[in-house]
């Protein structure tokens, strides 16, 4: 079975407004619920773990209790970094979770197809991440703001969530990161530190992370189009 962990304990600084962006409404429904409902449509997923700030636990539990069509779930408290939030969520993994998905609550436009492809590849290869071909030219720069070099764009992908792993691999990766004080910017980077190969599967360009206020309008446009 598959369990999905949803980090939603950030401070939404770039969104502004002093509220958790995951509780903002997108076309009339809170972002977090949209995300959870899509994952709940995936048959193999049997449990959802939502990680929020301590002062939001009751609000989020209330919201989820009143929502229909969610797989069984638990809400827990996050930490000061996304990685610490997920580490806390992983403590609630049910025994029958062989595959663990991590997905930013703030990516409500993820599709059932992408989720299934990540699960399939995680089962086959041990770890898989959703990503899209990079559209921009990316440069590596130095501390003085000069270009060091330009990696070939054809080799670059822009990484999203979901990211999925066999349970033992992800738990070992999180243990090692904690021991070594390694802070990664995604889950795959922790697994890469263990030396495992991680498969890249096609994400969708619509699977944006709601980060700044414009993203709400962009996401509403995608939703409009998908009707
Ligand atoms: N997140 C988390 N715990 C943290 C930081 C982030 O659970 N300590 C979650 C966010 O709630 C979000 C996801 O990780 O769903 C991706 O992070 P990001 O988009 O950066 O959200 P915030 O950190 O809240 O936003 P900002 O960086 O603008 O403050
Ligand atoms: Mg952040």
Topology:
Layout: E1 2-7, E2 25-26, E3 29-30, H1 31-40, E4 45-52, H2 57-65, E5 73-77, H3 82-90, E6 99-102, H4 112-125, E7 127-133, E8 140-141, E9 147-149, E10 157-166, H5 167-179, H6 187-193, E11 199-202, H7 213-226
Parallel strand pairs: 1-4, 1-6, 4-5, 7-11
Antiparallel strand pairs: 2-3, 6-10, 7-10, 8-9
Helix pairs in contact: 5-6
Bound molecules: cytidine-5'-triphosphate and magnesium ion.
Cytidine-5'-triphosphate (CTP) binds next to α3.
Describe this entry's structure for a reader.
With 227 residues, the chain is of the alpha/beta class. Helix content is 33%, strand content 23%. It has helices at 31-40, 57-65, 82-90, 112-125, 167-179, 187-193, 213-226; strands at residues 2-7, 25-26, 29-30, 45-52, 73-77, 99-102, 127-133, 140-141, 147-149, 157-166, 199-202. Strand 4 (45-52), helix 2 (57-65) and strand 5 (73-77) form a beta-alpha-beta unit. The longest helix is centred in the middle third of the chain and has 14 residues, at 112-125. It is globular. Bound molecules: cytidine-5'-triphosphate (CTP) and magnesium ion.
Summarize the structure.
The protein has 227 residues and is α/β, with parallel strands linked by helices. It has helices at residues 31-40, 57-65, 82-90, 112-125, 167-179, 187-193, 213-226, and strands at 2-7, 25-26, 29-30, 45-52, 73-77, 99-102, 127-133, 140-141, 147-149, 157-166, 199-202.
Short key terms for the protein model shown above:
227 residues, alpha/beta, Spore Coat Polysaccharide Biosynthesis Protein SpsA, Chain A, 7-stranded mixed β-sheet, 7 helices, 33% helix, globular, binds cytidine-5'-triphosphate, binds magnesium ion
